[in-house]
Specification:
Largest sheet of chain A: 2 strands, antiparallel
Oligomer: homodimer
Radius of gyration of chain A: 25 Å
Order of helices and strands of chain A: HHEEHHHHH
Strand order of the largest sheet of chain A: 1-2
Number of helices of chain A: 7
Bound molecules: zinc ion
Largest interface: A-B, 56 and 56 residues
Structural class of chain A: mainly alpha
DNA sequence: ATAAACCTTAGAGTCAGGTCTAAGGTCAAC
DNA sequence: GTTGACCTTAGACCTGACTCTAAGGTTTAT
């Protein structure tokens, strides 16, 4: 049986975070001392490590709640339920990557258009692009060949 | 001179957001009626549109504060200051993309390993990977050939 | 003159995932 | 038998960018 600070040392999660996870139903300590001290069994520890691993991969705490309820009784759940959660996460990640790649493209075009030199920004094409209505997007489309889409 | 709801209609930013931007020093109305109603001049409108365009590209409100102070007196600022901000943003975006791509890779490996079928999750390799200490990462490294890095 | 549609402010709430504090109780070692 | 390290709780605070509410004041059209 580990005390919370020992579990913290072992998992790398702060005691604050462990209590936070408990409050949100992700983990628990199977025993408490008379004074209320949390004591974690091996089973508790494995659950915490499951949460930490899932969190590290990028699952949200809500995703992890779903995964944990499957974990609690695997025989009553299917592989498909697991892949559904995983695929939903992958779709989120892909959507976010696409947004960021669009941002990157725009930023790169802006950088390519600016001299970046030490002289006055009165002629700066980045500033001009930000002034102009949707100009950056238009320029981006032109460069990428929007009609090839 | 536009009233706030007219500016809202024109820019697509809510009146709440416009007031929020004002409170944070991004924009302002150059006139107020006796009762305190905001009235926006063409110059004000262009500033709001600048903010909206920069926001749309992905700059944070703090980035935009910096860009606005350059915009206010371009002759006292250089192209380099502008590219510094833009490059910093690009670096942030690239870092975030790298994180997400790592997540994507892990999720894809998990999905590849699981049958995704309707039978019991007792044998589910995704669940196993989440149970096992760092196993997913190890598997990922193996597949990608970590020694080739 | 009155109703609808607008405007004002300060301040609270939202999301996620923590992070920290205050005020106090407990336990081990010396 | 007391120091110091640990533990407990409820609840406040943080980031960022909004979003909304309450309670009231103004404008415009009829
Ligand atoms: Zn230049
Ligand atoms: Zn420039
Ligand atoms: Zn299966
Ligand atoms: Zn499976």
């Amino acid at each position: 049986m580990l005390k919370i600070s020992e579990l913290s040392a072992r998992t790398g999660l702060s005691t604050h975070t462990l209590r936070y996870y408990e409050k949100h139903g992700l983990i628990s300590a199977s025993e408490r001392s008379e004074a209320g001290y949390r004591y974690y069994s091996d089973t508790d520890v494995r659950r915490v490590e499951f949460v930490r691993t899932a969190r590290h991969i990028g699952f949200s705490l809500n995703d992890i709640l779903d995964l944990l309820s499957i974990r609690l009784d695997k025989s009553r759940h299917s592989c498909q339920e697991v892949t559904d959660i995983t695929e939903a996460k992958l779709a989120e990640v892909n959507a976010r990557i696409a947004e960021l790649q669009s941002m990157r493209q725009t930023l790169q075009i802006l950088l390519d258009s600016c001299c970046g030199g030490p002289e006055s920004a009165t002629h700066c094409s980045i500033m001009e692009a930000l002034e102009a209505e949707q100009e950056a997007e238009v320029e981006k489309d032109r460069r990428l060949g929007s009609d090839a889409r």
